[in-house]
Amino acid sequence: MNTMEMMKSMSVGDMPMDMGAMQECMESMNACSMAATMCAGADMGMGMEMAKCAAMCSNMADMADATMRMMMRPAGMEPDVMKAMMMACMTMGKACAAECRMHADTDEMCRYCAMACDDMVMKCEAMMATMPA
Amino acid sequence: MSRTISQAVLPIQRAIATANPSAWWDGLVIGSSGAEVTVAHLDGSVSRLRVVGPAVELVAGEPVAYHPVAEILDTSRLATTARISA
After folding, report:
1. Residue A4 zone, left/alpha/beta (φ > 0; ψ -120 to 50; rest)
2. Would residue B25 count as lying in a domain?
């Protein structure tokens, strides 16, 4: 059973969702969380020069993980809470990508972390477009 | 400061690709010249890729998969790093 089949088997409460968009969003959040965790871990060995990047990537990973976990519990999904969480995650994603992009020319970890953040923001925007106002 | 290791597929690339399997684009090679590869995807779009990882010889008609976030070009022989050409 893939993620979408699992999601379809669960009650989505009062909130109609595009399950395809939600699966893409969840996968992108998962990738973002993993990339940010790995980037933060590598940053930690680089001293104070990369301390801000490490902290922002750690925050990014935690937020993406928490938002993805909320999506995995559709029965308890409150539209206003979900939208606020996604907005916060997108804002963090833009900030983390901007920080990582400053090092992307010399650091492949930051390059891929920024790309994973960008993709997550794009998928969140696509999913939010399918949600009722 | 430099952690640039562009000659291989990095663990972070593999992690991104594994965590986000829906992002893979399947396609067929329609042209290859040096490090440049042109791929026609199953949705009708065409991508021009520049291989920056280990070189791979590709011939027209060969099936490949490309992950645009992880920048992995997966062929029948090996996975390498490739970036979308501007």
Report:
1. alpha
2. yes
Q: How far apart (Å, rounded) are the C-alpha atoms in residues B56 and B37? A: 10
Residue in the block written with tokens 């022989």: B77
ipTM over 0.85: yes
Candidates B4, B5, B19; nearest CB to A31: B19
Tokens at A13, concatenated: 């409460």
Give the model confidence (pLDDT) of A80-117 as tens digits.
Answer: 999 999 999 999 999 999 999 999 988 999 999 999 99
Check if the beta carbon of residue A7 is closer than 8 Å to that of residue A22: yes
What residue spans define the domains of chain A?
20-127
- CA A41 to chain CA centroid, nearest Å: 18
Please report, for the domain that includes residue B15, its CATH number.
2.40.50
Reduced 3-state DSSP string for chain B: CCCCCCCCCCHHHHHHHHHCHHHCEEEEEEEEECCEEEEEECCCCEEEEEECCCCCCCCCCCEEEEECCCCEEECCCCEEEEEECC
Q: Is A49 touching B (CB cutoff 8 A)? A: yes
How many angstroms away from the CA of B70 is the closest CA of chain A? Answer: 7
Residue type, A112: Y
Residue B1 lies in a domain: no
The residue range of the domain holding B20 is 11-84
For residue B37, being part of any structural domain is answered with: yes
- A20-127 is classed CATH 1.20.1270.360: yes
Taking the Cβ of residue B1 and every Cβ of chain A, the question of whether any pair is shorter than 8 Å is answered with: yes
